[in-house]
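Suppose a classmate hands you a notebook page containing two proteins, each written out with its sequence and a corresponding row of structure tokens. How would you begin to make sense of it? This section walks through that situation. The first entry is reproduced here exactly as it would appear on such a page.
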Amino acid sequence: MREAFNRKDLQKCKRICQQILKLKDEKILKLRAIVATYYLEDKLDYLKDSIKKEIVSEIYNSKNITKNTPIIQLFSNVMPILSNDQLNILILEFLRRYENSNKKTEMDRKRIAVLLNNYLVTCYEKGIDGDVVDKTISCLMNMQDVHLLIYKEVGKFYFELIKGNKTNALKIKQELKNWNYTNLTEKLKI
């Protein structure tokens, strides 16, 4: 599904989604497949309220959300369809639990870095700014792992756009190009 989604192959995503929906259990995977298909069809606004409620419920009721990869992926996928309040409440809960977690593996930090970047992209696309955005970039920038540098740069790029600093965002994008991340920079929207 991920490969078809990344290639924006709607027909293949629809076929895979139908196969996923036939699986026994796998509730989170089914929700992610539905959202991915709606996203590619550019019909996220038409997602049934019952599905939206089920998604929010799954995220809210999840145990250990900062280490639960399927929940992190689901939240990342559905950010565009959440209300601004839902989005901010959920990211604050992720931030709180992440910051209170004693044992953070390299993979935990990477998953959360990706999640925080997705949040910043969504905030930029929805025109959201405020304290939660500031807390998000602060958490991302405070991650000490060197291998998270690119995630930090992408986060700063969208943070600058959110704050209206297009010139700074363009400088970050150019730095990434200079570091040979051309494919990445082509995906960074202004």
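The notebook's second entry, a different protein, reads as follows.
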Amino acid sequence: MTISIDTVHADIEALRPTSKRKIIDVVKEAGQNVEDWASSTTGNPDTNPKYCYEWYFEQGDNQPLLCLWFESLQSDALGVFQSYSLWPTIKSMESQKNHAGAKRADRLDNGLQRAFAKKIPVRVALVAGRMRAGSEGDSSKADYRELDHAEWMVTDFNHTDGTFTIRRGVKFDKGATQAVSAPAPLADPVDDWRTNSVVEDLEDLARREISQTTRAALVDARLGQGAFRTALMRHWEEQCAASGCTVLSILRASHILPWRDANDEERLDPENGLLLTANLDALFDRGLITFDESGHLITSSILAPESAAQLLPPKGLRRRPSERQRRYLQLHRETVFQA
């Protein structure tokens, strides 16, 4: 991956916001439509709770917009950047039963992953004020908020711990803008195998002559993001389909019928998906577990009993599969499962 550095870099202090723009005005300035904000239950579009507390905004083909704390900016030889992981934040919020905050952080995390995978620039609203200090500190308070005029790029996303790096004024070379970047390689051989498969599938999508809308939807589905993940989160009430785990950062939107064996309609079909924790997703993907037509767990003879006892839930899916899900599960048992 080759990047070039634009001339828009400035020192950090020069970027400090000095006025407090309303978030609705910042979103509009970034090119997004804010008409739906008028449907606020408060009667005031500016304070529509559906939008005004969000950290990430994405709308159609418009550039995504995200909010970054000015106080967290860093600089190096390449310019201004920010780098950290949202996963501890999500985990902390979930432990404190702050589910709304955890969902907002999860949406930002998913948006950063999509921006990295698609190599698309994002807009950034810089926020200055009081950042919450730890899990017991006072709530954060934005004193100043402005839209940065420069584009930013997510240049790295580590799928082992969620650490991302987003840089100001960084662009991908023109010849690379149509390519789609895959997640960073992982140390585990199972994840190495998965990463290589994702790379091939995303490169294939980049070469195909399909609409940008269709391509974006398929990229999201291949990464377990976007509408595909949202539908699974809704269906399984933001819990693992088998274990009931509610830690959003480790829940994966898994395809039942593998991507390589599915057509585009099946790849985008939420019925061809299960929301699973990362360990169950890996076992399901490699054919070491599957589920019967009633959702009962079936374990491969390859998986040692002691390993199965450590890794697997005692029963199976928490809901009986739908008719379409049963068809997909039958294909999984026939083509993926290693009896």
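A careful reader of the second entry would note: Confidence is low (pLDDT under 50) at residues 1-10, 174-193.
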